[in-house]
Specification:
homodimer, about 400 residues, alpha/beta, Rossmann fold, Dehydroquinate synthase-like, alpha domain, 2 domains, 6-stranded parallel beta sheet, two-stranded antiparallel ribbon, 15 helices, about 50% helix
């Protein structure tokens, strides 16, 4: 049985350079606008100037929440929510990658409540309304532009936590591949690892029955990332590559692949620990963890699912599942660490190995974590050591 | 460039036998409900009794629009709209296949206007509101449960015409594969041909650039239909087969594959002529036309796209595009006429060849029709002769 529900209210506008609908739709929600962004990158590509000019020309009151960093902090969300309340913000325009959009989505529900961000993320407070969010994606990978989730970090508590609420679906997301031409090779590679990890860790490698249609679609998406990732890294202005990655990113985590499976995405949860402690880029963390987790859980029960991916995506032909699964892990490692040139080891990232025990406890909440293979804290430590 | 916009507001509930949310959501829109259905089939499977009992128990006022036939008529839509206005219907519950749901969607916008159905379909009147529609799919193929379109036939004028309006997106569609267990082999086969025709005629075989990601997803969907169609025909209660076909059907025509291409779906338009004149089941008409259209337009310009599908879906390995394209048509014919046992010729369906000239004119509106290969009325006649 494959019971699931799916409802994606977000409107996607996929276009190259045409932002007429962007300004019209932002203004349709009001003239008190908060622009959320990170740092220099949207200024470097001229997008910041264009947006502020266009909205000023329409007599909008534009406020800014800038300096959103990767692994966005709850304190920044609280800053944004305060600004929204003080200025009666009517619409939030998030321009950036996953961190900027996640921050904006968290602001949207925090602003509508008389609460702090962390109380909402930890579900102490249930938001009942949200300020509309419109996004312009400038870095591809997280898929947040087409879903109802965000991931927020509490630096003080060293906790990075996902949060989902249907109020957080962006109203409209603008996907323009040309805006990603200037994304550096490293971030492009991290984005590819992130997309793959969404296909694999949150869907394909989940336990339980899988509808063959969706398995086949996931394999199609996997092949797309494998094919176009290295092209986008080598030729940053390759439209074909950027477009395919951009749409794959949105489709990979919008719920269409989930098939109703409700199991923890184990590698994501391990990665959240790493990011919370050491502020690692999420896609990079996933690239380091995913193949090592695969090696660790590879046995007679799991080999078939890994081998299936290897045959469909890496063109492997070994009929023995264990052999084929091992080659699949190898092919994935070559893709991530060689084709995409991502670092492969935590030690090379300056991460100490002193907190692994605590991380293992955190991942398992003191007990056991489900997924393709149930794991206890000691298993998590072993996997982290494989990553080290 | 792949500019497109996508927004699918319909909520999908995919489940086996659990209809608790169905009744709750229908009643959330009101207690004056119109049930739209065809004939005996929903009574035979006990669904009619269950629905009427459950809604009666909730003190709903239930009105019925029954006897919706395949190629639903505008007169039936007008009957339904009149009933809606007379009884202040608050929500329409459509239980059936594509014809029933198309009829209900047309009723929903006609009822909200002071106009006749045909004035809306022909765009003389623009509807501004619609009664909410909730669907329960009992025959798979058309994909109407997840899109904004309907196809309505004017028997008197011998015109079958498609119509799209965002007001017509169903609010919720319930997809329960077990409800399709009793669909006869012939209708199951027609549904499979319909799904394939949506993948091919409205997307894959369209002219213009195609995002590789979507091409690859379409091939995944094509393989799914080829794999599970014959299983569903041979084993009507095979849940796996019914589930895959049911979800493929919805995904094939919900806009996600379209990639912004705005060209006429030529085979669909030819088929609409056949159905308007001779009341043929749409999926069957598509099965007869599609391979013959492929043969007719197969040349150095089109062979590559046909061959690509053949290699990815039928496992063909010929490197020469023309050879491979010819084999692709052959493989498609074997699938439709042998594996699915669908009739292959118009002559065997009792269709005379006396109206082909007029049909050719109608398809081309007197001029030329676009698509992968622009065609004039004489071409349409030639294609129809190949089908005869």
């Amino acid at each position: 049985m494959y019971d699931f529900a799916l409802n994606i209210p977000t409107r996607i506008v996929f276009s190259s350079g045409n932002r007429e609908e962007l300004y019209r739709s932002v203004l349709s929600y009001g003239r008190k606008i908060m622009l959320v962004y990170g740092g220099r990158s949207i200024k470097n590509i001229g997008l910041y100037d264009e947006i502020t000019r266009e909205l000023a020309a329409a007599n909008a009151e534009l406020y800014e929440l800038s300096g959103v960093v990767s692994n966005p902090r709850h304190t920044k969300v609280d800053d944004g929510a305060r600004l929204c309340r003080d200025r009666d913000i009517e619409v939030i325009l998030a321009v950036g990658g996953g961190s900027v959009i996640d921050c904006a989505k968290a602001v949207s529900v925090t602003a509508g409540s008389a609460a702090d961000c962390w109380d909402i993320i930890t579900k102490k407070v249930v938001p009942v309304s949200a300020i509309p969010v419109i996004t312009v994606v400038t870095i591809t990978g997280t898929g947040t532009e087409m879903n109802n989730s965000c991931v927020i970090t509490n630096e003080e508590l060293k906790i990075k936590r996902g949060y989902s609420n249907n109020l957080m679906y962006p109203k409209i997301s603008f996907l323009d591949p040309t805006l990603t031409f200037s994304v550096p090779a490293f971030q492009t590679a991290c984005g590819c690892a992130d997309i793959l990890s969404h296909i694999l860790d949150t869907a394909y490698f989940m336990p339980g029955d899988r509808m063959e249609l969706l398995r086949s679609i996931m394999e199609a998406m996997g092949r797309t990332v494998i094919r176009y990732g290295p092209i986008a890294v080598a030729e940053p202005s390759n439209y074909e590559a950027r477009a395919n990655l951009m749409w794959a990113s949105a489709l990979a985590l919008n719920g269409i692949l989930k098939n109703g499976i409700r199991q923890p995405a184990v590698c994501h949860i391990i990665e959240h620990e790493l990011s919370a402690y050491y502020d690692i880029t999420h896609g990079l963390g996933m690239a380091v963890i995913l193949p090592r987790w695969m090696r660790y859980v590879l046995d007679g029960d799991t080999a078939g699912i890994f081998a299936g991916f290897g045959r469909a995506v890496f063109g492997l032909s070994d009929s023995d599942d264990i052999t084929c699964a091992e080659k699949t892990v190898g092919a994935l490692e070559r893709f991530l660490y060689s084709d995409l040139s991502l670092p492969s080891r935590l030690s090379s990232l300056g991460v100490p190995d002193t907190d692994f025990d605590q991380m293992g406890e955190n991942v398992c909440w003191g007990g056991k974590i489900g997924g393709l293979k149930p794991l206890v804290p000691g298993d998590i430590v072993n996997i982290l050591r494989l990553c080290y």
